[in-house]
Amino acid sequence: MPSMPTITTPPHGSWLHGAIARIEADYQRSADTHLIPLPLPAFSAAGIDLYLKDESTHPTGSLKHRLARSLFLYALCNGWVDEGSTIVEASSGSTAVSEAYFARLLGLPFVAVMPRSTSAEKIALIEFYGGRCHFVESAGEVYEAAHAVAAQTGGHYMDQFTYAERATDWRGNNNIAESMFSQMQRERHPVPRWIVVGAGTGGTSATIGRYVRYQRHATQVCVADPAGSVFGAYHRTGDALLTAPGSRIEGIGRPRVEPSFIRTLVDRMEEVQDVDSIAAMRALSALLGRRVGPSTGTNFVAMLALAQQMRARGEQGSILSLLCDAGERYLPTYHDAAWVRRCMGDCAAAEQRLQALLV
Question: What is the pTM for the complete model shown?
Answer without folding.
Answer: 0.92
